[in-house]
Amino acid sequence: MDKNPDLRHLIEEILRDSREMILATFSAKGPWVATLVFGHDANFNLYWISFDNTRHTVELEKNPQVAAAINKQPTGGGQDKGLQIEGKAMRLPEEQILGAAREYFAKRGTPHMPKTLEEVNTLTEGRSWFVLKPTKIYIYYGPLFGYERKEFVP
């Protein structure tokens, strides 16, 4: 087992090769999870769009502490790869939406990348943009370190 793997490289591989994340929020009602398609950037920020009235949106607006899980398609036999992420989620400022949208639409395989904020708004009408900024990432990468997980702080 490799004791000093390049964790940034492993995280990028898992993010690049995965399409969906499970986002966990918490409120007085208790915990909640939602499956979301995401985009990401070089700092491992995760971007998604949601309707304002979804439970996860309402909850993260009140309590921005969230967790997420991202798993590559499982293969079994000690080959599984994934991430467990702690961080803060928030509505994305307007000046950051175009860049986030391009990452998000690239992940979805959208053939035409939006060039302006107006194009993004047309494509995502009725939904808002959000970002999860990780404070800690746990990596499990079976081929390199079995069932042990490694911690990465961005």
Give an account of the 3D structure:
- This protein is α+β, with helices and mostly antiparallel strands.
- It has one domain (7-152): Pnp Oxidase, Chain A, CATH 2.30.110.10.
- It is built from 5 helices and 8 strands.
- The chain has helices spanning 7-16, 55-62, 94-108, 117-123, 142-145, and strands at 20-27, 30-37, 39-40, 46-50, 65-71, 81-91, 128-141, 149-152.
- The longest helix has 15 residues, at 94-108.
- The radius of gyration is 16 Å and the shape is globular.
Summarize this structure briefly:
This protein has 154 residues and is of the alpha+beta class. The chain has helices at 7-16, 55-62, 94-108, 117-123, 142-145; strands spanning 20-27, 30-37, 39-40, 46-50, 65-71, 81-91, 128-141, 149-152.
